[in-house]
Design brief:
It is built from nine helices and seven strands, in the order ααβββββαββαααααα. It is an alpha+beta fold. The protein is globular and about 55 Å long. The strands form two sheets. It has a four-stranded antiparallel beta sheet with strand order 2-6-4-5. Strands 1-7-3 form a three-stranded antiparallel beta sheet.
C-alpha cells in the first residue's frame, strides 16, 4: 500500500532505497467505512492523510440553512486533511467523511515533523503539494466569481473527471454552490441523445 505514496512522492522528489524504507516507518494504514468520519468539526486534526483508495468529502454545515457545504473531495492519491488544524494542532472548523469505503495512509503530527527532519527532501515534496493545493483554491475562487453555474459544472467535469464519475451528483451540486435540481437540468442538456 505504501508503494502508492512512494510513487506519488517520486513525481516530484527522488528518494533512495534507504529513504524509502525509512519513510515507511512513519505511516500507518487506516480503513474507513462509508459514512465514517475522519475528522469532525471541533476535533483537532491529528493526522495528515493520503488516500490510497476510496473517496472522502470535506464539508461544513451552514448554521443558517442547516445544509452541508462541500469544501473539497479527496480520491486516490489525494490528501484529506484540515491543514490549519493539523499544523497548529487547533480544533477543526469542518468535517471530513468517507463517501465510500476508503483506505488511507496516516501520519501523526509529531511523526510528520520527525519524518521531515530525517528525510529533508520531503520538505520540497510537501511544499509542492501545498502550492498545488493553494493554486487550485485560488482558481476555484476566481472561477466561482466569473463563471455561471453551467460553466462551473463543465469546468469541474474537465478538471476532475475521476471525481465526477465517483461522487454523487447532489454532492457535486453542493461543491458548485447550486441546487441538485439545477444540476440535473444542466446534465440533461449535455446528455447524448
Amino acid at each position: 500500500m505504501k508503494e502508492l505514496l512512494i510513487k506519488s512522492i517520486a513525481k516530484y522528489v527522488k528518494l533512495n532505497s534507504g529513504e524509502e524504507a525509512l519513510l515507511e516507518n512513519f505511516w500507518t494504514e487506516k480503513t474507513l467505512d462509508k459514512g465514517d468520519y475522519l475528522l469532525r468539526n471541533g476535533e483537532i486534526c491529528r493526522t495528515d492523510n493520503f488516500v490510497l483508495q476510496g473517496a472522502l468529502k470535506a464539508f461544513y454545515i451552514n448554521a443558517e440553512s442547516g445544509k452541508e457545504k462541500i469544501l473539497y473531495f479527496a480520491i486516490e492519491e489525494w490528501w484529506a486533511t484540515d491543514i490549519e488544524s493539523f499544523r497548529k494542532q487547533k480544533p477543526s472548523v469542518y468535517n471530513i467523511q468517507a463517501i465510500e469505503k476508503t483506505e488511507l495512509l496516516q501520519i501523526r503530527y509529531d511523526s510528520f515533523q520527525e519524518m521531515l527532519r530525517q528525510i529533508p527532501k520531503l520538505e520540497r515534496f510537501f511544499r509542492i503539494i501545498l502550492e498545488n493545493y493553494l493554486g487550485s483554491l485560488q482558481r476555484r475562487i476566481i472561477l466561482n466569481n466569473i463563471l455561471d453555474a453551467e460553466q462551473r459544472y463543465l469546468q469541474f467535469l474537465e478538471s476532475y473527471p475521476k471525481i465526477a464519475d465517483k461522487v454523487p451528483q447532489y454532492l457535486i451540486a453542493s461543491y458548485l454552490g447550486i441546487s441538485a435540481e439545477f444540476l440535473s437540468r444542466i446534465r440533461k442538456k449535455y446528455k447524448p441523445h
